[in-house]
Specification:
3 helices; 2 domains; alpha+beta; 52% helix
Length: 152
Amino acid sequence: MGSQTAVHGTLTDTAKEQVRTGRHTTAALLNEAPGHPEPGSAEARETQYPVKVRYTAPDGTARTATTDMDPGLPAGHRVRVWTSAEGTLTKPPMPPDEIRNRAVGAGALTAITVLITGPLAYRLTARVLDQRRMRIWETEWQQTARRWTTSP
C-alpha cells in the first residue's frame, strides 16, 4: 500500500502544480487533420493525428505548435489546448480517476514484483549457502578421511 500511496501523492502534487501554472486556451488548426481510413471504427475513436495549431501564449504572443487531434477536423477548427507557464503546449493535468488508476497499477506492479523476487532471492541465497556448506564439509571430510584411512 505504501508505493500506491506514494505514487498517488506524487501524481496529485504534479497535477496540482500543472493546474496552478498552466492554463486552457483556444487554438485554431492551421491544416486539416487527416481522416481515418475506417471512420466510425473503435480504432478511429482512439486514433489522433499530429496537426499544426496557432494559439496565444500566456504572455500574449501568437505561437504555433503541433499537437495530436481527432481525425477529420477541418482547417480553422477551434480546439481547447493546455499550455504550460512558459507557453508551450502540454497535456492537461491528469484527472483524479486517472491518478487513482495509475496508483493502483503501481501498487499491483509492486506486489507482483515482491511475489516474484522474494522466492527468487530466497532460492539464490539458499543455493549460495548450500554451496558454502558443501565446500566446508568437503574440507572437513578430507581431514577426517585421512585419520580414518591411515593405519596405526
